[in-house]
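During the no-cost extension, the postdoctoral fellow (Dr. R.K.) reprocessed legacy sequence entries with the updated structure-token encoder. One reprocessed record is reproduced below for audit purposes.
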Amino acid sequence: MTASGANTTNRTSSTITLTVNGRGHTLDLDHRTTLLDALRERLDLTGTKKGCDHGQCGACTVLLDGRRINACLTLAVAAEGAAVTTIEGLADGDRLHPVQEAFLTHDALQCGYCTPGQICSAVAVLAEAADGWPSVVTEDLTADTVTLDAAEIRERMSGNLCRCGAYVNIVAAVSEVAGDRP
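Re-encoded structure tokens follow.
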């Protein structure tokens, strides 16, 4: 309090509840804490990687209410009330998610650093296409669903970089999971 009686306390943190991989976590976080840092440093979910920390590489991709986001650009307080899914939350117990299985089958990784973000992005790509969301290369904009051919997959995955160059195998893995779905 100042001499005038005004409260000068600046709140720079809040207690929030994040729902991550189906579990609630109550955290006292600085308002400037990114979702990426909250996941890695406070919840010990280190599968999500910090690459560029500027939203340019996609290594930090997670799902927020099923939509892919860059966790390095999202404040943790903005994720309160939403369902966050990380690479650790995709498997069903010991059973890997089909995209995780396909990445293994097609050797769609080398060093593995970008792989969690690539996989989370691929899961969202499949959902976006199934929901009929067009991309810049989609030919039929009136279709209810989008066929995930190689051009569609490359375009939709373009926000996720792989320094090792495993792109051919990543496209093959996503294509396998997409199957013959329109």
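The first strand starts at residue 13 and ends at 20. The mean pLDDT is 93. The remaining legacy entries will be reprocessed before the final report is submitted.
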